[in-house]
Specification:
By secondary structure, the chain is of the alpha/beta class. It is built from 24 helices and 15 strands.
């Protein structure tokens, strides 16, 4: 296998091994066997040598915790991207049990107990036995757990037809790229909530212009990833994509394109305001055009020709309103005065200040992270591994953190000697404990370049307690920013109760920044609050919260959410070059 590039990287293989451990636990296998896979996954993630090199030199078996059987499985995954043992194991377990694992608070042991004692194999059966009170009677469950399970089932059902922005964007961009290659497509774009960069979307809206719409529609319905066609006409089609996302394509003539794009992009209230604005000027605006008419019409003789959305806005006495702002949330007043801000571009971001390595629960070594981010064109990347109380995330004890500081300094020295225009920053994502205490003392925090303070436990505190707890962290001069302010996981977990306005005010008073966590499960703090924070002078930090190198792409997603919150480059700390960033990091501590 000399020179062979693995089909799966070590992070992907580690994920498969972790899942095997979970599946074995569901089957009731002995503990040492399930742990062997979990341990092997962690071992792989912390490898200091390239996996392909270890496989090529037949040295994988020399690593502690990787025996002959695991060595064969890892090699098979690396070479083929598949593993027969994994496929057979997955097939042997009722799919409903795997669905039950997605319900908050249910791990493999609890799911197995429900299956063994009550014969539960689906979420529907689980709901039924919960409502009958049977789950509360089981050892290790009780009334509280039963209520939580029902809550979790309802939460998942509520968002069953909703999808993360990241998944929708990936699916839409693949289709758009294909549509652009079609000779009959003149222009094409996303529309709807996806183009407005909503954090969660219902379906994908696509728009194209063409003189031969039927050919484009037919091409669209035959795209890779289309599971089935749910509707198909001459100018419109709906398909169901892999992953359960519905995609709708509408094809219009090219003269109609800017009007249709405007109409199918804006939020409901925004569109109502736009149509009213046209009426006040003796015009009619709809998806087909802007017409000189007192009544609804499609008469081409009355059309006010506009080739772009910008021209439509101009005709209605407005500066161009970027798609992200079309929510009827102040954009009209700003556009009338030509005061729409020059929104942040994701390419203005220089790096991320909240990320993890394999020293805690990340998947990359310091060297791998530095090489990747440098190649990506970043100027810096902070390593902020978890603090000691996050034991589930392999949080660092003080002595390990100090070892990491030295390792990062040594690596930076090496990078500088090689002439690299890049640096890793030392840091910690320090837990905010009960009462607002921090997991590390101020003396240790003072040794770090970057400190992110986050809540990872005690989510059930009441609003007043949680608010005061987070404000106490914001008031600490060694804390640069608050991480994922509400703890929400979109479509998975509600935010804990916290008065975000009070926290923003406290950050404004103390010069503490707030993170916009760009992980698509979080997008936390929410875009609806950034306008207020900006007006208060609170700076944003768009962070990937990266646990593997591929998560660097979250910078682009985070920038989209920041744009939706009306943020400009000057409002975002990590648009600064390294020297100015260091100055701001020091300024926070000098307050």
């Amino acid at each position: 296998m000399e020179g062979h590039i693995p089909i799966m990287d070590k992070g992907q293989i580690a994920d498969v091994l972790s899942e095997i451990g979970t599946l074995l636990e569901l089957k009731g296998e002995v503990v040492f066997k399930t742990r062997a896979y979990a341990n092997a996954a962690r071992t792989l993630e912390s490898l200091s040598e390239p996996l392909d090199k270890l496989i090529a030199e037949d040295r994988l078996g020399e690593i502690k915790g990787i025996g002959e059987a695991l060595q064969k499985k890892i090699t098979e995954l690396a070479a083929t991207g598949k593993l027969a043992y994994y496929d057979e194991l997955k097939a042997s377990i009722p799919p409903g049990l795997l669905d039950m694992l997605q319900i908050q608070g249910l791990g493999p042991k609890k799911v197995k107990a429900l299956n063994d004692k009550l014969g539960v194999e689906t979420v529907e059966q689980l709901e039924k036995v919960c409502r009958e009170g049977k789950v509360a009677e089981l050892d290790g469950f009780g009334e509280k757990t039963q209520a939580k399970i029902l809550e979790g089932i309802q939460f998942r059902r509520q968002f069953a037809s909703r999808h993360l922005l990241s998944a929708a964007l990936a699916a839409a961009e693949a289709i758009l790229e294909s549509l652009r290659s079609h000779p009959d497509v003149v222009r094409c774009s996303t529309a709807g909530s996806l183009r407005r960069c909503k954090e969660v979307i219902g379906d994908i809206d696509l728009l194209a212009s063409s003189r031969h719409p039927a050919a484009v529609i037919d091409f669209f319905t035959r795209q890779a990833g289309v599971l089935n066609v749910t509707a198909k006409g001459e100018t419109k089609a709906s398909v169901m994509l892999t992953g359960g996302i519905q995609a709708d394509l509408r094809v219009v003539s090219d003269p109609e394109f800017p009007f249709a794009l405007l109409y199918f992009t804006g939020g409901k209230e925004h569109n109502i305001a736009m149509r009213q604005r046209a009426i006040l000027r003796g015009l009619r605006l709809n998806e087909y055009g802007l017409f000189r008419s007192e009544v609804e019409t499609r008469d081409p003789q009355l059309l006010v020709a506009c080739h772009t959305e910008e021209e439509v806005f101009q005709r209605l006495g407005l500066a161009f309103i970027p798609p992200e702002l079309r929510e009827d949330a102040g954009e009209f007043a700003a556009a009338e005065k030509n005061e729409i801000p020059r929104l942040l571009e994701w390419t203005q971001l220089k790096g991320s200040l909240h990320n993890h390595s394999n020293w805690s629960d990340g998947h990359g070594t310091l060297e791998e992270i530095a090489a990747y981010m440098q190649e990506l064109g970043c100027a810096y990347w902070a390593i902020t591994d978890h603090s000691k109380s996050s034991f589930q995330a392999n949080g660092l004890q003080p002595e390990r953190l100090r070892q990491q500081i030295e390792a990062i300094r040594a690596l930076n020295k090496k990078l500088a000697a090689e002439g690299a225009d890049f640096q890793l920053l030392t840091g910690s994502e320090v837990d905010i404990l009960s009462g607002g205490r921090l997991d590390f003392d101020d003396g240790l925090l003072a040794e770090l370049d970057v400190v992110v303070a986050s809540v990872h436990q005690g989510f059930t505190h009441n609003e007043a307690e949680m608010t005061q707890r987070v404000i106490a962290a914001a008031e600490n001069p060694f804390v640069h920013m608050l991480g994922h302010l509400t703890g929400r996981l979109l479509l998975e977990r509600e935010a804990y109760k916290i008065n975000q306005i009070a926290v923003i005010d406290a950050c404004a008073a103390n010069g503490t920044w707030i993170e916009l966590n760009a992980n698509p499960l979080r997008f936390d703090m929410d875009w609806r609050l950034w306008h207020y924070a900006k007006d208060k002078g609170v700076k944003c930090v768009i962070n990937c919260d990266a646990h593997r190198n591929a998560h660097a792409q979250f910078l682009r997603l985070g920038a989209g959410i920041a744009r939706k919150g009306w943020l400009e480059a000057k409002d975002v700390i990590n648009t600064l070059p390294l020297d100015k960033l260091r100055k701001e990091l020091r300024r926070k501590r000098a307050r």
